[in-house]
Each structure stands twice: as structure tokens, then as C-alpha cells.
Specification:
The protein is an alpha/beta fold and about 325 residues long. The chain folds into two domains: about 5-205 and about 295-315, Aldolase class I (TIM Barrel); about 210-275, no CATH class. It has helices at about 5-10, 30-35, 50-65, 75, 80-85, 100-110, 120-130, 150-165, 180-185, 195-200, 210-215, 225-230, 250-255, 255-260, 265-275, 300-315, and strands spanning about 15-20, 40-45, 70, 95, 115-120, 135-140, 145, 170, 190-195, 220-225, 240-245. Strands 1-9-8-6-5-4-3-2 form an eight-stranded parallel β-sheet. Strands 7-11-10 form a three-stranded antiparallel β-sheet. Strand 2, helix 3 (about 50-65) and strand 3 form a beta-alpha-beta unit. The mean pLDDT is about 95.
């Protein structure tokens, strides 16, 4: 069983499901697993750590996996050689998020890869299309990690309306099951990009304790803030904030960000140690509101198969009756 859309045709995949390029969590193993299940795995290039990226790209080559790779655009702009290194490995697509994609589009196209731009507003969507994007990811505020303030249920159809039928639009944020995929398709999207649901898999690189926290959480247990950015001493420009699971550290400092800035060196040292020891009372588990839809840590293939099966059933619901007034 499969669901064919403009996205599956453009990327040559069986199912309209993409892996979010989660920094350090979307490693080669998880990327290859999503691709093997019929979607497209996207390696998390993140802030661009050369040693990690080289290691994971080499692993993907050994696995002979089809893959994409994602970068934080303004971070990559300071290390343009990382894009060249990724393009040498022949990715299917490159995802650019949070920054001007314009300087990189031509290089990516010359390498034969699709350009996927993640956007959070209509203005960003139009800018990305003008720059030459082949696919857009409309990211709602429900998503884990960095994002902005628009909800996915209104953002997706507005982006679709704004750019017309020129390129596929992918929905991201709060999606973790077949209901989310079916809803995204009804909103006009050609597929979905998911992070949190794939974080809670055996294949993901995250710590087991972090995966268990996702499994036990509800959507109410997440919060969008700048607390962890301050603590990591990587404050992003407005309007971008980061959604994580609530923990003791976040609850302590939310609303006290100025005081946290004044104690940033001390708290950063504590945070680094917490990451090393997997103390998630302090360290962040980066996950979105869809954590509340994660009931178990399941294999990637089981997740993809279930989502496609459930979405297909919903899209063909015989019990929906249209009655003229």
C-alpha cells in the first residue's frame, strides 16, 4: 500500500513521509531506516560539525542508502565547504532552514539534488520559491526544535494558496500518525515531515532515557522558549524560539531569562555536564507537541507502515455522508 503525491514523484519515494533533519538524532542509521521504509531519510547536518557529518555520510555510503541532508542555513554559510562535502555524496535533496537559501540553490541543483526549504511564514515561502526552491516545508509552531508562531493547520493551506500548484508543500509540526498525514493532504500538502515520532525509535541516535521521556509526555508537557538557547549560549534571532519537553531546568528559568543570561556561564557548564551524563532534568529533550501521540518506542518501518495504512483508511472513509440541505 502506498500514497502517491507530487512529493513522492519528485523525490522518487514510495510514501510521502520525510524525516526531519534533527541535529545529532537523525544520524545515518535513522536516515537509512526511513528511506528503507519507503520515505526519505534526511541526515541532520545541524550546526555543521565536520567530524560528525563526515562519519555519518561515510556510514550512509556503506549502507548504499538514498538520503537527504539538512542544514541550518546561516550556520552553513560560515562553513560552505560542508555543503560541497555533502553534495559529493549525491544526496537526493538538501534541506535548508532558517536563513537565505539563495546563495546555495544553484550549487545544489548542479549536483542533481532537490532544494527543500523549511519556512514558517508566507513571506518566507515566497522568498524561498523566488530563490529556486523545489519543495517547501511549512513548519507549524507545534514542531519540536526551532520554529516560529504560526499553527500548521492554517499555515499549510495558506502557503499552498500563496504559491499555487508550482511546487509541493510538506506539512511539519504536530504530526505523528495516519490522522496527521491524512489531515495534511486534505489541507493541500503533498506529504509530511516528522521528527518527534522518529526520535522515539530504536534506530534514532538519541538516548533511551530521552526516548522514554517522549513516550511518557503529553503535548502539554512541551514549551516553546529561549531558555535552552541561552543556556547553550546559542541565542537565535527573533522570531525563532525552541520547543522542548518541560523539565526542572526549563521550569526554573522560564520567565527569568534576563537573570539566566546573567548566569549563563555557570548554567552552561552545568548544562554541558548534564548532556554528558544524560541528566534530562537539566538537558533538553527536543520534541514537539506530537509527543502526546507517541505511545511506544516503535521501529521506523512499523511507524511508516502504520501511518500509511491508517491515512489510506481515513482518506477512503465510507462512513462520511454528504447530504444536501
Amino acid at each position: 500500500m502506498s500514497i502517491r503525491t507530487a512529493l513522492t514523484k519528485r523525490l522518487g519515494i514510495s510514501h510521502p513521509i520525510l524525516l526531519a533533519p534533527m541535529d545529532k538524532v537523525a544520524d545515518a542509521r535513522l536516515t537509512a531506516a526511513v528511506s528503507a521504509a519507503g520515505g526519505l531519510g534526511i541526515l541532520g547536518g545541524g550546526y555543521g560539525e565536520r567530524q560528525w557529518l563526515t562519519q555519518e555520510l561515510d556510514h550512509l555510503a556503506r549502507l548504499r542508502a538514498r538520503f537527504g541532508v539538512g542544514f541550518i542555513t546561516w550556520s552553513m554559510a560560515m562553513q560552505p565547504e560542508l555543503l560541497d562535502m555533502a553534495l559529493e555524496r549525491k544526496p537526493v535533496a538538501v534541506v535548508l532552514s532558517f536563513g537565505d537559501p539563495g546563495p546555495f540553490v544553484e550549487r545544489i541543483h548542479r549536483a542533481g539534488a532537490a532544494v527543500i526549504c523549511q519556512v514558517q511564514t508566507i513571506a518566507l515561502a515566497k522568498d524561498a520559491v523566488a530563490a529556486g526552491a523545489d519543495i517547501l516545508v511549512a513548519q507549524g509552531t507545534e514542531a519540536g526544535g526551532h520554529g516560529a508562531s504560526r499553527g500548521v493547520i492554517s499555515l499549510v493551506p495558506e502557503v499552498v494558496d500563496a504559491i499555487g500548484a508550482r511546487i509541493p508543500v510538506v506539512a511539519a509540526g504536530g504530526i505523528a500518525d495516519g490522522r496527521g498525514l491524512a489531515a495534511a493532504l486534505m489541507l493541500g500538502a503533498s506529504g509530511v515531515l516528522m521528527g518527534t515520532r522518529f526520535y522515539a525509535t530504536p534506530e534514532a541516535a538519541g538516548a533511551d532515557a530521552a526516548k522514554e521521556r517522549i513516550r511518557a509526555a503529553t503535548g502539554d508537557d512541551t514549551l516553546r522558549s529561549i531558555v535552552f538557547d541561552i543556556t547553550r549560549q546559542r541565542v537565535w534571532p527573533a522570531p525563532f524560539t525552541g520547543r522542548c519537553l518541560r523539565n526542572e531546568h526549563l521550569d526554573r528559568w522560564y520567565g527569568r531569562e534576563i537573570e539566566l543570561m546573567q548566569r549563563a556561564d555557570e548554567e552552561s557548564t552545568r548544562y554541558v555536564k548534564a548532556r554528558q551524563t544524560e541528566n534530562f532534568d537539566i538537558a533538553a529533550v527536543i520534541a514537539g507537541e506530537s509527543a502526546g501521540l507517541v505511545r511506544e518506542v516503535s521501529s521506523t518501518r512499523d511507524i511508516v507502515d502504520r501511518i500509511v495504512r491508517d491515512a489510506s483508511a481515513l482518506l477512503a472513509r465510507p462512513e462520511v455522508e454528504i447530504v444536501e440541505a
